[in-house]
Amino acid sequence: xxxxxxxxxxxxxxxxxxxxxxxxxxxxxxxxxxxxxxxxxxxxxxxxxxxxxxxxxxxxxxxxxxxxxxxxxxxxxxxxxxxxxxxxxxxxxxxxxxxxxxxxxxxxxxxxxxxxxxxxxxxxxxxxxxxxxxxxxxxxxxxxxxxxxxxxxxxxxxxxxxxxxxxxxxxxxxxxxxxxxxxxxxxxxxxxxxxxxxxxxxxxxxxxxxxxxxxxxxxxxxxxxxxxxxxxxxxxxxxxxxxxxxxxxxxxxxxxxxxxxxxxxxxxxxxxxxxxxxxxxxxxxxxxxxxxxxxxxxxxxxxxxxxxxxxxxxxxxxxxxxxxxxxxxxxxxxxxxxxxxxxxxxxxxxxxxxxxxxxxxxxxxxxxxxxxxxxxxxxxxxxxxxxxxxxxxxxxxxxxxxxxxxxxxxxxxxxxxxxxxxxxxxxxxxxxxxxxxxxxxxxxxxxxxxxxxxxxxxxxxxxxxxxxxxxxxxxxxxxxxxxxxxxxxxxxxxxxxxxxxxxxxxxxxxxxxxxxxxxxxxxxxxxxxxxxxxxxxxxxxxxxxxxxxxxxxxxxxxxxxxxxxxxxxxxxxxxxxxxxxxxxxxxxxxxxxx
Length: 594
Known about the structure:
With 594 residues, this protein is α+β, with helices and mostly antiparallel strands. It has 20 helices and 18 strands.
């Protein structure tokens, strides 16, 4: 403890962070990097695998149900009108009727000057392997031979070059990251996203074994190609898994197996994403609102300990705002007459995400902008279309009125997959609500959180994890009020922390403060709501917190070693006990506050 008070932070990070790899996987992106780095790599969490022929579907998820029902369409239009009245803009039908009238665009030019890169089109990925030019090899070979051999080489030079050129057309077996999203639909590839809506993306079209193989391939590619950590050296490194609250026991166990058994890290520990976010911002108590691409979660943390009964999971995120943006513009007939389909063309989703991040904000009044929309037809160069986008403050308000977003409906994984008969979890499947002390003492020695995060996991329900059908303001209010103590509630309402990519949306902080304050019941003695400003990029807060926890964990009592995991797993009664993290959290608080 004295060492923590006197050591220079940069020295501590350099000493202890050089062999710690922090992995924070999400549904759309994975944040990964060495703990000593200031920021991680942020890479799309997907892989495009080559198929033997042009596939019937180029995105594995496109066969899943994504149709909007009539009732959902009516509810969406009703939600739009509610938002329109709040934002003081015309209602949906009024917008269509008045669409031909010009609008004032005074602020758009200045906005475009600051965001010029958003007008640049994405390019298709080169799907062929890179081969060395044959001429150098031929010349160096001929220079070492005598005249007769030189003459023979010269006679066959043209034939050899043709053969080598043909070999250059060899397809890459798989492509990861953003390059995978930019693969043309005409190429013989199928895009896989191993995590979807906060769970492993298992379906009848995407078996469990393939999901796990894809996770391994993506992570191994990043470690080798981006972080330059070959497999032969990974036994010198340890991994910190910072996992979202939406994952259940079996999913966490499979990821640990990938990290320890397949990627060959020497040891690993699991931290809860919400808890890590608190440490990433140097706090001890906060209501953490994690707004990712496909899932939004809320959880309260008190004195560095996550409170599991406060957890809320909402099945929508930034990608749903992007889809809503497309629906809004098409409804107002402001979108160009092009084939934009984010379900079958991943490039269109990249474009919509960039437009959303550049133009959407929460602000009263009519907000419109001139933007360049690109069309990506099969294998053709992208086309550019300059258009006027309107009602740009409506899509992000879907966070508070989720019926506007109409999330895609994905069937849950088969229930048989969640039946885990190994010792680590077998006793938990016979009880709907396992007793916390039993789980914390016996089953989770590698999960270093103040309390286990899956208390209310219902085994026999139709979904792996309960999802709330409410808006963001109601979820935050319900989460904080569930603590049951007025002093803690007041503290949490004034310590709301927004993290995730959606947290960068302009005007979101005052909107959250206003909507949450209005959602508090009138009989509660609470009259103040405050969202704390993030000390770092909200997208990377959880990753940074995982790095801090890993660096300050001197005892490493809760870490799992590779040999132990492969040989025995975690067995009931094996003597491996869950180590409470109070001492570690006290170390972190001392370091942060010193």
